[in-house]
Every structure is written in C-alpha cells, then in structure tokens.
Amino acid sequence: MAVAAVSLTGCQLSSSELPAISDSGTKNSGHVVWHDLITPNLAQSQAFYASVFGWQFQAVNDSYTLASLDGKLIAGMAELDNKQNASHWLSLISSKDIAGVSEKTIKAGGKVLVSSTEIKGRGTIAVLEDPQGAVFSLINTVNGDPETHQTDNSWVWQEVWSDNPEQSKAFYQSLGNYSAQSKPLNNGNYSYLALNGKPAIGFVKKPDAEIGNTWVNYIKVADIDATLLKVTSAGGIVLMAPSDKVRSGSVAIIRDPAGAGIVIQEQM
C-alpha cells in the first residue's frame, strides 16, 4: 500500500499542473476533503463507478482523470503501471500545516512517504503512514476545499480500521484540534474524532487480522440491495453483505474489479 501511494503521487506529478479540486475559497482543515483512486486499469475503474454510482469522468492526462457527480468534482483516479497490480482509495485531509503534521507523524513513529510537494493548480500534498501502517494524504489546496454534499452516490464518511483503534485515535487527535467522541452503536460504543462540532474520522477494530491497517471510505446510496446488484453486474465483489447485526443492515463492503475496497451505506 505504501508503494502504491507513492506511485499515485508519481502519477499526479507526471503533469506539471492539475486542475483545482474546488474554487470555494474556504478551507475545511482537519477533515477529509478529497479521494484519489489508485488503479492498474483506469478504463475498467471508470466503467465500474459510472455503472454503479453514475459518476462522470474527464481525463486530465493519460494517467489521471477527474470524477464528478451532478456536475461537482468528487474524486480523482490515477493509473499505475499494471505490474504493480495495486488498487486503493487514498483519503486526503485538508491541512494548512503539512510540514508540522509530517513532523508530528515522524515523532509518533509514523513515516513520510512523499514529502510536501507543490502541484501547480492544485496545491501542496504529502503522503504519510501512521504509526500502525495506515496510509493517508494531506492537501493544502490553492483555491479552497470542496464543499461537503452528502448526497446519494457520493462520499459520506471515513474510518481508520486498525489493530488498536484507541492508539489510532490518539495519534490522529494529536495532529489537530480534534475532540474525542463516542456514541452508542450495536450494543457498544462507536469511537470517533470531531472538529469544530463536526464528526471527522471514525475508528474501528479491523474485522480480520489478514487485513492491513487501513483507511476505509463510505459512499451513501439510496438502496443498498439495488446497489449491490449493480456492483456484481459491473464486475465487483460483495465482501460483506448487509446484516441486521451490523448497523441494522445499512452497510455492505464491496471491492471494485481492480481490487479497491469501499463501504456503501444506506441512510438509516
């Protein structure tokens, strides 16, 4: 995953300039504001997300394309050399102090995989690995961060799945002015960080020891069963079907044809 993240940045930097992801003029520091997909097959990935979620695409160059929904940019996709055969969604957190966050990450036992790098038109980015091995990215946008629109077929939430959720939460809390929160869920407590009164990052003990510690992103859907039919029809795989024991049957875990996993969630 670390190699894939570095390669993604290499794809982005193959162009001296990339379009801005927003012209909002405002920053949403500490929150995830963008997602980039690493894929060995750009055409295959585009076809899947178009079929399942109705996304539209606009190529920036031969290896990077922008995804939009209802005319609003929501993600990027970068094609890797197929020999690496790695696919993953990378979460980008808005930050006005990439150098400071990078330094804190190193001191906590994490790594800087790609140091602060300026991309003309887009802003400054870096790729980091937290102390438990989950990879994430930082971005300081040029023209502001995208506004949050939690509509069907767009991003709605993100979590860190790890061996030790409390350690993960403590690390990310140290990176900014987050407050630790929890709420009842499935006869237990769901732990998350909030910033300025808004939930920002959830923390979950990973369900399988074989899974590496990782960020997991959620897409909101109107009908989870209908969406799963689209997933399998488009060549994806259902890793976990809805279950009444897990968030009242409102979520499912899927994997796209290139291997990237996401969670889809129906409004409860």
UniProtKB/TrEMBL annotation:
Any one Pfam family match given in the protein's UniProt record, by short name: Glyoxalase
PROSITE patterns in UniProt: VOC
Domain of life: Bacteria
Cited InterPro entries: Anthracycline_SecMetBiosynth (IPR052164), Glyas_Bleomycin-R_OHBP_Dase (IPR029068), Glyas_Fos-R_dOase_dom (IPR004360), VOC_core (IPR037523)
Residue intervals of the VOC domain: 28-141, 154-267
Name under which the protein is recorded: VOC domain-containing protein
Organism field: Pseudoalteromonas lipolytica
